[in-house]
Amino acid sequence: MWEFVIVLLFSAGFSNGSESCEPLHAQAHGINLVCCSLNHSLTPSCEFSSLCQEHCSCFLTITRDLDCQLESKSLLDDNKKPYQWLDHQPNSSPFSCRNSNLPNPQSPYTIVVENSNGSQTKEFLLGACSLNVTSITFQHYHSIYDSIDFGLCFPNLASFQVVLLHRTRANFHVSLRNLNFLKVLSLVNVDFEFWLHPSPFVNTINYIHIENSSITELPKWISNSKTLSTVYLKGTSITSLSPIAQLPAVKSLKLSHNLIENLHRLLFVSPFLIHVDLSYNRITSFASHTFSKCVDLRVLDLTGNPIKMLPYKPFAKNIRLKWLKLSRTNITTLSPDHFYGLGALKTLSLSRMPIQTISPYSFVPLKSLRYLDMDSCNLTRLPQAVTANCHLARLNVANNMLHRSSSMPPEVMAMLSGLSQLRIDGNPLTEFPASFLLISRENIRLLRHLLHSTMTLPVWLREPCTPYYWSIHLANRTNNLKSFVNQYDEKRMLKNGLGYCKEQYDWMMEQMEVYRELEKNSGCYSLRRLRSSITSSPTFAPKLPKNVTNSLFFSIDHDPSSPAFHIPILLLISLCANFLLLFSMLMCSIMACRMEKNVENV
């Protein structure tokens, strides 16, 4: 009795705690077959050991050498024993396409079809209908496959991919329409159209990838999918995004290089949308409400669209947006309302835009901006608007029309002295900007960028004092920047009759002092001082408010003896005194009114 119970428990534990798996790697008749799991692994020397997963799974590749018998009845009469797949051993015995006798039929199968005979491959796939095929990929697609009902043949199919090197026409109305559990649909270089009636997989699909296709529209029923999270469309003839905009749970939309037009009447309804790429389409306009429900949007790319103007406060609800790309659009005017609500934006790309007007306060809403790209925007001078961002670390104004010293105004450069990168290469600069001398000698990284860029600009040859200005400015420095201008010493300067360069340098430095004070008294300067103090002193690390940039709190330095400490304190005292004065005047007025009433009553 006890022996029977032990055997019963052992068999139950074996059936529940382990699985049956026949590990093997077989190559025969143009078929490459790998089956294994972590507990049932292949031989250590097998090159396909990395395919083994936790549970038993099989990977089958159909190559161009596929060789199976189309007539199965006569073969079964002559060969009573079914075909055997041997581990690392050849088996030259013929086998039927419809009766391949593949091992581990209950384990999930992944099938890859390479360039093979269409009729034989079709028969082989029909013969594999009894297998648990969960993924199939075609690297060569024949029109004969259109007649296979994959939903009936492979009811558990979760991934269907056709990835081709050349454009091919296909009709999936029969083959894909009845799939029940499809999660991944990827079609590359396939010309096709969707069918009108809904498919069962609308309730399971979560990824659609269509690239280089003549498809003109997505079906309306796709908007009913509550599981679709990623849509990738590239190089198609799609013009409308109505079904996509109505997807309730989509997270990523990569829709570049299509024929998408007006977005003015669209509203993307998914609150989970994080990434939207609409670059290189035909979008001419969009509305203030287009992205208003995308409260979690982080990346928005509108590059390469013929957008002429932005609507009023188009991103007011996108408070978490980190990256906004408007490059290669036709926008000519920028104002603060265009960036209203983008307090978390880190990167703004405006390159290759025909900008004509920039309000001095355009970038004020961008409190967290770190990188501003204004490459090739036909700028004739640095705009005042770039001074409004205390966190700005990188500014790209390369390939513009900065050609005079006035193109780099000192009142702007003074506020940019804390940058780590300022790209000015590709500009026709012919005069040395005195504002370069406002850059602190301690900011080695920025000085390196400016020095290297200046060497490539016309000013290096057109204005003979330019190399000597840099040599004098970097004198007594131990960094390697000095080595680039060592040859332009005072002896050479006097020899070439350029002794006046030293006098001009001293005069420019004197003229720049007033702008240096302007920069030091700015809120950005105090913020940088506070950040550097926190970095250098780990014992003093106050918790700062998240959304405060130029408040009085940031103006207070750690050292009470420094001027940066006394200025805010005096300001606070002045404000308190004014408040007390106003309060006293108010009380006096109230008392006077009461006295007048008492006199009247008497």
Automatic annotation (TrEMBL):
Pfam families: LRR_8. Keywords: Leucine-rich repeat, Membrane, Repeat, Signal, Transmembrane, Transmembrane helix. The chain crosses the membrane at residues 565-588. SUPFAM superfamilies: RNI-like. Residues 1-17 form the signal peptide. GO terms for cellular component: extracellular matrix; extracellular space. The keyword Ribosomal protein does not apply. This is Uncharacterized protein. It comes from Caenorhabditis remanei.
